[in-house]
Design goal:
D-Maltodextrin-Binding Protein, domain 2; Helix Hairpins; ten-stranded mixed β-sheet; transmembrane helix; 3 domains; 12 strands
Length: 356
């Protein structure tokens, strides 16, 4: 009888222990510094601090489960995990598939590119002169100088031989006069005296003024387009280029909705930034605080920079399965209470973050 009693007590203890384990929340996370900073087995960051504070205040037991970003979202949708403490962007599509707590931080997406060296900028500037538009304009300019130089010499060589000399030297005189007149320099050392010579000069002056203005505008436009093409600074300038972002992220959805044609996706930020640094993509687009933190903390990414471009305003929150509505309400209430305290501002400052 005593043996049966002991066995009964043992079974109850095992069942109770199992029940405690089942009550532990499964918390999924993936590195997203400064919100989640993973160093070996140690995990810290703004979101880790916030979750630990919420769990402590609500007496919640949990276990942390490291995961890749995309599988973590899939597990969240299916109920494989009970909560994701990553800085998840609240979107309309995600809201159909999962629950979100109240937002605790607002940010935006931005663009990381590889810096262009001074030497490369100089090469781009010089290269702007060697395109079809500039070279064709230069050839037309030389042809005009040659044509009016010959005409001026033909009309002036008999009645004005001291200025437009005979022979090959006279042709050079005509070229010189034509170039000086066309560019409106007007040295005054050579001038026509015949009627046909003066008419030729008038046509050259007014026609040349219009042509030079057009050529100048063409060169400026060519240099500007070349600079923008090789060193873009706007969101829309990347639509036809190879860009990268995180797979299954809000930024990926945003880029797809805005007709970006060549989107490369990555499971984490470091791999995407390394591809950018190696020249495999032209830009990496993602959440500004995460990109900024990653570039500042990794010395191998010193050649990368963030453009002063802000788009896709994002509100971060914790995500839960659709079946966890009651738990979401409890966590949301506590989050609201925490972010209204002065302590929250201090923690934000510690991780180099500021409210949007």
């Amino acid at each position: 009888m005593r043996v049966l009693l002991l066995v009964f007590v043992l079974l109850i203890s095992i069942a109770a222990s199992s029940q405690v384990d089942d009550e532990k929340l499964r918390i999924g996370y993936t590195a997203a510094a400064p919100f989640i900073v993973k160093s070996g087995e140690h995990v810290e960051g703004l979101n880790v601090w916030l979750w630990k504070r919420v769990a402590s205040d609500l007496n919640i037991e949990y276990e942390m489960i490291p995961m890749e970003f995309s599988p973590m979202l899939d597990s969240l949708r299916s109920g494989g995990i009970d909560l994701s403490i990553n800085p998840l962007t609240i979107t309309s599509q995600r809201s159909k598939e999962m629950e979100f707590t109240h937002s605790f931080y607002a940010s935006n997406a931005t663009i990381a590119i590889a810096e262009v060296s001074s030497f490369d900028k100089f090469k781009l500037f010089v290269g702007g002169f060697f395109n079809f538009g500039f070279l064709s304009g230069l050839l037309i300019l030389l042809f005009i100088i040659f044509l009016f130089g010959v005409l001026g010499w033909l009309f002036e060589r008999k009645l004005n031989p001291n200025v437009f000399r005979p022979g090959s030297r006279g042709l050079w005189d005509g070229m010189w006069w034509s170039a000086v007149t066309l560019t409106t320099v007007g040295y005054g050392d050579k001038a026509p005296v015949t009627k046909l010579g003066k008419v030729t000069a008038l046509v050259l002056m007014f026609g040349g003024l219009l042509f030079i203005s057009g050529l100048t505008a063409s060169i400026a436009s060519s240099l500007t387009v070349n600079q923008l093409t090789n060193n873009p600074d706007g969101f829309n300038e990347f639509k036809d280029r190879a860009v990268g972002t995180i797979h299954n992220s809000g930024t990926e959805d945003f880029l797809s909705e805005h007709f970006f044609k060549n989107i490369n996706t990555y499971e984490n930020v470091p791999s995407g930034l390394r591809d950018l640094d190696h020249g495999n993509i032209k830009a990496f687009m993602y959440d500004e605080p995460i990109l900024k933190y990653a570039i500042q903390r990794d010395s191998t990414l010193s050649e990368l920079e963030l453009l002063p471009v802000k788009f896709d305003i994002q509100f971060y929150a914790f995500g839960l399965p659709k079946t966890h509505v009651e738990l979401e309400q409890r966590i949301t209430q506590r989050i609201l209470e925490i972010i209204e305290t002065e302590e929250w501002d201090i923690v934000l400052n510690e991780y180099g973050l500021a409210e949007f």
